[in-house]
Specification:
single chain, alpha/beta, eight-stranded parallel barrel, 15 helices, 17 strands, binds beta-D-fucopyranose, cellulose degradation
Length: 473
């Protein structure tokens, strides 16, 4: 029940029976360093691949960069106060590696570490559990110059950086995520090149994926050594992949894309092996000679939890005979000619189809791999918002959250040990290659004035947190 002393400003749940989440359910919101911090060249921070990429003409819509972003670096106190007003139980943020270890190797930058210490202390002072992601896509540029994720050594550098962070913050941060969405780092960063560093080579993308997971495994071991009490996990972005029809050819297309999108990561991380069919699909791209003895054991080092980011579903069809695959660099190496099909269902401003049942399906699938506690570490939607008389009535975003929370609850009913949910995102921010043109926030950001305005979805989410649940429909 909501607290009668402070009624939510918007309570669309009034008078309706509740759908309650388990006690202690961790209600949160998420952000990432490069998307919100700004202060790109302040207090010793050096460039990451996203600084270089966003400053390269033609890479990001309208030439937007994260130089200022939401200026969160200078507004930490106010931003945590907003989180406290929402009643967040947890806040998932990422650390800018380039801020705390500007060269990607060697000495730490005390001013950079100090920023995260202040953030964590402020969260704890407000009763908000800090949830730290070590890598949300922003590799220090010197490490990219040395080969980036396709180079094996980057995994070892990531482990060193992890030790540095565990030493600095492990006394006050309980929840740690190694990587955010390694699929994006590998296949958008080195395959299609639409994300930093913008390289386009299928074999490099596959190598990057492997070394990201190797870095993850080494980082888990580093965290365990430094902070035995830490709760450690990884965040993967998963999609149900459906065939457009029940023909064998479409089913095979779905199998291929499922291999690259989901099983490329789930199988090594949670089972310690690459799926054989995936290795066969990739045989024209790479012979996996980058995989060394012992790597898969490291990659599958036991975890305490798994984070799932969920946005949409893929529906795919077999290539049409005689029609050449799009010659643009692909994020689906070896399966470039598979067609992605739209179903005509409602989409978000990203063009992503809204498919809440896919979240239930995805959580159940991961639960088929592991009994570990699961967390939805991101889920949310971009819509075009309008700020009218100081209000943003984002009914579509609110409905998206509502539908997906119901889907999450269904997974719990089906026995999935789902322990928390993080809305993406706390506030509007730099949406990577889309710059500031896509708004995912529950809090509106005016990028000229840096004024924050909680949208209807934020006020609604606050009421969900207060009652630990939703109304039944
Ligand atoms: C995810 C990213 C996150 C944000 C959302 C919309 O893939 O992890 O940073 O861009 O998509």
């Amino acid at each position: 029940m909501s607290n009668p002393a402070s009624p939510p400003a918007v309570d669309v749940l009034d008078e309706r029976p509740g759908l309650t989440f388990p006690p202690g359910f961790l209600w949160g919101a998420a952000t990432a360093a490069y998307q919100i911090e700004g202060a790109a060249a302040v207090d010793g921070r050096a460039p990451s691949i996203w600084d270089t990429f966003s400053h390269t003409e033609g890479r990001v819509v309208a030439g937007h960069t994260g130089d200022v972003a939401c200026d969160h670096y200078h507004r930490l106190g106010d931003d945590v106060a907003l989180m406290a007003e929402l009643g967040l139980k947890s806040y998932r943020f990422s650390v800018s590696w380039s801020r705390v270890q500007p060269g990607g190797t060697g000495a730490a930058n005390p001013a950079g570490l100090d920023f995260y210490r202040r953030l964590v202390d402020e969260l704890l002072a407000n009763g908000i559990e800090p949830w730290l992601t070590l890598y949300h896509w922003d590799l220090p540029q010197p490490l990219e110059d040395a080969g980036g994720w396709p180079a094996r050594d980057t995994a070892a550098r990531f482990a060193d950086y992890t030790t540095l962070m565990a030493d600095a913050l492990g006394d006050r941060v309980r929840y740690w995520t190694t990587l955010n969405e390694p699929w994006c780092s590998a296949f958008l960063g080195y395959g299609s090149g639409v994300h930093a560093p913008g390289r386009t080579n299928g074999a490099d993308a596959v190598r990057a994926g492997h070394h990201l997971m190797l870095g993850h495994g080494l980082a888990v071991q580093a965290l365990r050594a430094a902070r035995p009490a830490a709760e450690v996990g990884v965040t993967v972005n998963l999609y149900p992949v459906d065939p457009a029809s029940d023909t064998p050819a479409d089913s095979d297309a779905a199998r291929r894309i499922d291999g690259l999108a989901n099983r490329f990561f789930l199988d090594p991380l949670l089972r310690g092996s690459y799926p054989e069919d995936l290795v066969a699909d990739l045989s024209t791209v790479t012979d996996f000679d980058h995989v060394r003895d012992g790597d898969l054991a490291t990659i599958s080092t036991p975890l305490d939890l798994v984070g799932v980011n969920y946005y949409s579903r893929h529906v795919v069809a077999a290539p049409v005979e005689g029609v050449e695959a799009d010659p643009a660099p692909s994020c689906w190496p070896g399966s470039e000619d598979v067609r992605f099909v739209t179903r005509g269902v409602p989409v978000t401003d990203m063009g992503w189809e809204i498919d809440a049942p896919g979240l239930t399906e995805t959580l159940r699938r991961v639960n088929g791999y592991t009994d570990l506690p699961l967390y939805v570490t991101e889920n949310g939607s971009a819509f075009v918002d309008s700020l009218v008389d100081g209000e943003v009535d984002d009914v579509d975003r609110l409905a998206y959250f509502d539908a997906h929370l119901r889907a999450a609850h269904q997974a719990i009913d089906a026995g999935v040990p789902l322990r928390g949910y993080f809305a993406w995102s706390l506030m509007d921010n730099f949406e990577w290659a889309w710059g500031y043109t896509k708004r995912f926030g529950m809090i509106h950001v005016d990028y000229d004035s840096q004024v924050r305005t909680p949208k209807s979805s934020a006020k609604w989410y606050a009421s969900v947190i207060r009652r630990n649940g939703l109304a039944a429909q």
